[in-house]
Amino acid sequence: MSIDWKNLGFSYIKTDYRYIAKWQNGSWQKGELTTDNIIHIAESSTAIHYGQQCFEGLKAYGTKDGGIQIFRPDQNANRLNRSAKRLLMPEVPVDMFVDACVQVVKANEKFVPPYDSGATLYLRPFLIGVGDNIGVKPAPEYIFSIFCVPVGPYFKGGMTPVNFSLSEYDRAAPVGTGAAKVGGNYAGSLLPHKIAADGGFADCIYLDPLTHTKIEEVGAANFFGITADNTFVTPLSPSILPSITKYSLMHVAKEYLNMKVEERDCYIEKLDEFAEAGACGTAAVITPIGGIKVKDKLHVFHSETEVGPVTKKLYDTLVGIQKGDVEAPEGWIVKVK
Ligand SMILES: Cc1ncc(COP(=O)(O)O)c(C=O)c1O
Fold this sequence. Notes:
alpha+beta, about 325 residues, six-stranded mixed β-barrel, binds pyridoxal-5'-phosphate
């Protein structure tokens, strides 16, 4: 199979191997790689009926010297375990998670996009409740699996700014599951996303579910703004998914670019405070926000067509670290090859 690395979108491609492990009788059984991409589970599995499932997303990168490396898999393991705790599922030991990521990348080496292609290998770990059950209660058994897909940019255009509209729907409840990466949050986002896309927007912005005055998320990515005095600002709220990219960018802004960093409320009525704005996440990487439509007016930040200078520097440094061109903070990179 030949892959056109430079024109990859964000679509499923069946790769050769995936990792699968079962939790039975109170403990994890030894996991293994398999070529079978179909999971056979009980019809009464809690993952199907009650949404007892969570997942993750992280990437492996081809480096200039022909190596392969994974970005911060321990952080994804920790977040999966926080999601698991919230839904009363067994945690996956961090070592087991990271080792499984490495096994999957190694086994699918031919699907790792080359360094200069602009594409990456996206890993999708997930944990699902399975087995015979009918009442609303935790499953008797669980499956933890990881598959991988080579991907290009999530938002069409990559580093070209895109516009967003405001959602009238909430993606999470104030003290619900917004901070957990659980499927139900995403099922609820399909309709608001469609409404935004039908209106010609890349996706929608969710406001805080309690007051509807503060920015929470940009589709399936976190929000950041850059003030005129060069401060990196990003919202803080218990119903936002804590983005690993966002926390990495906060570190990059402070330690590599000497910027001030603030995690605080970002009011939708105060977009003027930002000279630049962006969406950040594993899939979105950094996607510059051209404008946000508020009521009938499109609020444009830096430009609808050009990426702003600070956003560009943040992007270059972060992606440089991920691809091995810029020295990474200790512990951020797991070498596969
Ligand atoms: C709702 C939501 N917010 C933010 C993010 C970005 O998080 P991360 O940077 O860890 O990929 C994601 C993607 O995982 C997401 O689904």
